[in-house]
Design a protein that fits this description.
The chain has about 230 residues and is α+β, with helices and mostly antiparallel strands. The chain has five helices and ten strands, in the order H-E-H-E-E-E-E-E-H-H-E-E-E-E-H.
Length: about 230
């Protein structure tokens, strides 16, 4: 194997590793990659978004069957790929230098990002009401693209001032709250009428869009669990 690799390098050809399918004399893809850590490689994958990736192999983990690849460019990126998604790789250049150390990661920064992501997910989920008909959800979605809108039971509240009562959700179903501005009611009614007209026209042209089902989201505790 070593002599074969030397002959290939001497001839100017980069060695190519392929998955071990059981034939004698072949090296498994994992073993070949272990010897290429720190080298520049080209990967062929079964991932439609990244059929080919080229960069420096940072590390490979036999426990999780994952590898980390650093791609260069104006904005360097780091890719975590499962070994099962690889078909082969080509060694572009070797190196004896160890990979650069990872920058320290702040636990508070990670927790803040997780909290922000979870808050956005909760906000998105709060805009889906599973207790109302599909038409009501479509009206809500259309109105919320123009004005700040939230659900309150089977009614929705616009700008925290106007209540649009169900199950009609029509202009005449709009009721002004105590803190409603002078022109708020008329504005919401006008926007609601226009959005209902757009939905009616869209319904005539084609099938109704499918409202996505948002799964239940667990509450964020603010940090990792103890004991694991």
């Amino acid at each position: 194997m070593a002599e074969s690799t030397k002959r290939q390098n001497a001839g100017g050809k980069a060695p190519v590793a392929t998955p071990n399918v059981g034939q004698p004399g072949l090296v498994s893809l994992e073993n070949a990659l272990n010897g290429a850590v720190g080298a520049r490689i080209r990967l062929q994958t079964t991932i439609p978004a990244h059929p080919t990736l080229e960069g420096t192999l940072y590390t490979i983990c036999s426990l999780t069957n994952l590898l980390a690849l650093t791609t260069s460019g104006a904005s360097p990126s780091h890719h975590i790929l499962p070994l099962s998604a690889l078909t082969n790789f080509t060694l572009l250049s070797t190196t004896t230098a160890p990979p650069p150390p990872l920058a320290p990661i702040s636990p508070s920064f990670v927790q803040a990002r997780a909290a922000n992501a979870l808050a956005r997910a909760h906000e998105k989920a709060s805009k889906v009401n599973r207790t109302v008909p599909k038409e009501a959800q479509e009206i809500f979605d259309a109105l919320s693209r123009t004005l700040p809108t939230r659900w309150e039971g089977k009614d929705f509240v616009v700008m925290d001032q106007i209540i649009v009562k169900g199950p009609g959700y029509r202009a005449e179903d709009c009721k002004a709250g105590k803190d409603a501005g002078k022109d708020s009611l008329g504005r919401v009614r006008k926007v609601l009428e226009n959005e209902r007209k757009k939905l009616a026209q869209r319904e005539q042209k084609g099938p109704k869009p499918v409202v996505p089902v948002v799964p239940a989201i667990p509450a964020f505790t603010g940090g990792p669990r103890k004991g694991g």
